[in-house]
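Study this protein:
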Amino acid sequence: MPASVVRRSVAREVLDLNRFESVVDDVSSLLLKYSPKDLRKLDVMLGRCDDMRTVHRQLRQQLAPRVQATVHCMVHRTELLSPTKGRLMVETVVNEDVVCVMEHKIAAHGAVDAASDTCREFSYPPLRIDITSCEALLFRVIGEGGAEEGELCRAVLSLRALLTPELYDMGEAITVSLVNVKRQRNTVHASLAGTLTFSLKVPAFERYPRTVLLFCHSPPRVNRDFVRYYLDRICSLLKHYDANSLMDIHHAVYEKYVARRAWTVDLPNLLFTLIERWGPEVSTFPPPPPPTLQDAQ
């Protein structure tokens, strides 16, 4: 970061250095994605801007006017059940916005055989997700250079739920199941493939419009603990019996049940329906928390 930019910014905005660096990162990722040739002008752009709090939003309106909001995704860890010899890429897809990053291996867990590469720690660059309309968030883990090329596994999540502060905290580490899907003629075979752990980070000075949140038309009233309790039980059941439904269960639970405010009845009913269909639960859980409504803060 050029020192001249720091001095001018501090004198004008009295921003702390960490916040200023966040703005620089946000603007850099924006230019890299939509106008790489202007990266060399970053120093001049930031030095001339009148308000550091709005520079990212203003540039985004110029370069990508259809984008309503931006969120950064940090992939912390991928743990696959089957060994992979090649490198892995993680891809996020939201509508037409597709971003892919390559892993950089930094460590191995315990005494895991390095040749198996089933449980590894990686360093992934942040993924910049630009939201035009808040559809599902698709994670794809892709193999490259090994015995298996192409998509290895995926997960489909509700991005609106992840951005809703009553349901998830920014920076919270979230672990989701990855499912491998193979299609042969008229049949689909799905199997549990592993897990992916990630967190979301809001750009500096970003304020999300209600149109990208789960409760966009009225104040949210929801019990986070109650919803997560039943989501955990449902996921546990599907891991054992129905991996195909596990792939997008996060999206289904939040978009079909929590969004329409029927979660106090529908989530227990969904669990009981799945038990009747597939069989008893394999894991044990404590009693559910009371479904006390939580008003918006």
